[in-house]
Every structure is written in structure tokens, then in C-alpha cells.
Amino acid sequence: MNNISMNKEISTSVIKSETPVNRGMHALSVAPMLDWTDRHARYFYRVLSKRTVLYTEMVTTGAILFGKGDYLSFNEEEHPVVLQLGGSDVNAMVECAKIAEQQGYDEININVGCPSDRVQNGRFGACLMSEPQLVAQCVSEMQSATNIPVTVKSRIGIDDQDSYEFLHTFIDTVARAGCQHFIIHARKAWLSGLSPKQNREVPPLDYERVYQIKKDFNNLTISINGGIKTFEQSQAHLQHVDGVMIGREVYQNPYLLAEADQILWGDNTPVLSREEVIETMSDYIDRYVSNGGRVWHVARHMLGLCNGLAGAKQFRRFLSENANKAGANSELLKAAFAKVSY
Predict the structure, then answer these.
(1) How many domains does the chain have?
(2) Which of 36, 167, 182, 231 counts the highest number of beta carbons within 10 A?
(3) Which parts of the sequence belong to the DUS-like FMN-binding domain (predicted)?
(4) Domain shared by 255 and 280, yes or no
(5) Active-site pick, 96, 114, 127, 306
(6) What range defines the domain where residue 279 resides?
(7) What CATH code is carried by the domain that includes residue 137?
(8) In a domain, 98, yes or no
């Protein structure tokens, strides 16, 4: 059967809680992912879910203060949207926090989790876990200079500094400076010897350590990240912590987000069909192309939209082969979707 009509129910089932859902803003967020969570990806995710918190790619203080590009632009529809900031120079961090607030960001998140050599050379990312006082100073002065929350995303440890006491001390020190929300990737990071990709896969997950942090700091908002792929897993984590952050699984299977509001927050709004998503994104593409953009800049984030359906491979191939051609418009997206059947 070819594409179903827009008003027909999709086949996936919505799992709702039997009791009223009373979850905070950060129950689900999409992780900051370099080269992936740009403003086009975030707009796409916002079409799928109205409640999920969206994060920018990590943007360095140097790019904001001295770069020639516009690294902070976003669509108004993206709210709530968080700027993830990379840096450690307190004055630069404060200046960037002010700019982010002026631009309209809802929060600023400090990157204390990325293990790449390039990031370490800039003295930010995961290596900052060994300098909790510096992170605390950044948080304190950034919050004093702005009226939006400053949060921290970290690992559970780095190298041989991977005891629970090490993580506890880091959280305690930074929380005393005013940070109320920590997103913790439940793996430690090796600062040498492993690539960033390996650091997302090789160090073992330790969810219990993050759960214990929540028990010890019950007044803080604690979100968990790492290896989470389903809402069933998310709901299990939410029995222990306040929020779940999902990264690559959302990028590879974005339609996962279509049921997020209903499953995690208990909303009664209808789940968008893929047809409705295609129609909304077609309008967005046409606006973007009319301003000089290319379809591929948007469509590359949509390659996984039809995963699991017959014709998904043809959908991906058609977009990949044609979306970067001059003169392409939203009709190309619709032509790709016509290759999918249910």
C-alpha cells in the first residue's frame, strides 16, 4: 500500500502512563552533536516534538567572539533551545553568556564531557572535570551576568580519576556555585588512547552511579545520557533521575520523537504522521531555498525519517543523490517520500 492519507492513524502504538504525568521541562532532550544538531536539524525535531529540549552543536567562545560566521542563529520555533558552549576562559564565557541571552537562548550548557584532542588543547571539554573550581567560577560569573540558567554536561570521570568520590566532589563544587542542572554521560572518558567515537562506546556504562548522584543531590536536576535508545528505557531511567538525553539514536531514527510528547508527558495531542512531517518540512525547505539555501542542508538530517518502512533505502538514496543539485526544491523531498510504502 502506498502512502496513507494524512488523517489515518499511524501504525506505531503510543504507550501512555495510567497515572497523570508530571514531568519537568528536561524529561527528554536531544544531545548536542557536532555537525549534526544545527538549526535545520533542530527545526525538524521541533516539528516532531513540541516539548523535547533541543541543544545546539557545541560552539566555542572563540567562534562566537572572533569567528566570521553566525554561529548562534536559530529558528524561533526551536524553543526551548539550549546553547552548548565550549571554553574555560571565565571572561570569554561570561561575554558569550551575555550574547546568548541577548540572542534569545533559553539556557546555556557548559561542555565538560567532550574528550577530543582538539577540545583538550583548548582547555575545555572533559578535561575540565579535573578543574571543578574553574568550572564553578565560570558558572557563578555567567549566572551573575545573565538571567538564564547555566547548566553543565559532564562524564562520570576521566582517565584514572573515575571513583564515585571524584564525581561527587565535582558535582558538589559546581552546584555550590549555583548550577542546578547536570547532564551526566554515564561513561568515563579516556583523554588519550581512544577516539571520540570509541569514548562513546568502549568505556562501560554505569547508570547506577548517576542514580546515586541524584540520591545524594536530590535538590538538583539530574539528567542521564549514554546508550539510551527507546522510550521504554527512558521511562525506566526516569524512575531514578529527572531527565533523559538521547543523541545518535534520534539522529538515525528521528521519527522516534513523534511520540515523545504523548509517551513521556502524557499529552493528548495527535501523533504526527510522516506525511504531515513531510508537508511541514517542505514548507520550511521552500522558505530556506528562496533565501539562497540548498535542499541538502535540511534533507541530510531527514534521511532516517522512514527507517523501518518498505522503500526507506530508496528514500535515503534519492535524497542523497539529488538534494544537493542546483534548482532542487521541496518537490524533491515529496518525490523521495513517494518511494516509501506501508
Answers:
(1) 2
(2) 182
(3) 30-337
(4) no
(5) 114
(6) 274-337
(7) 3.20.20.70
(8) yes
> How many percent of the chain have pLDDT more than 90?
83
- Report the C-alpha gap between 184 and 160 in whole angstroms: 18
Q: Is the pLDDT of residue 185 over 90?
A: yes
Does a structural domain hold residue 8?
no
- Catalytic residue check, 138: no
Are residues 101 and 173 located together in one domain of the fold?
A: yes
**Where among 241, 262, 283 does a domain terminate?**
262
**In this structure, are 97 and 193 located in the same domain?**
yes
Give the model's confidence band at 6: pLDDT under 50 very low, under 70 low, under 90 confident, else very high.
very low
| Structure confidence by residue, pLDDT tens digits, 204-247 | 999 999 999 999 999 999 999 999 999 999 999 999 999 999 99
Residue 84 assigned as binding residue: yes
Does 225 show up as a binding residue in the annotation?
A: yes
| Residue 161 in marked binding region | no
Indicate whether 1 belongs to any domain.
no
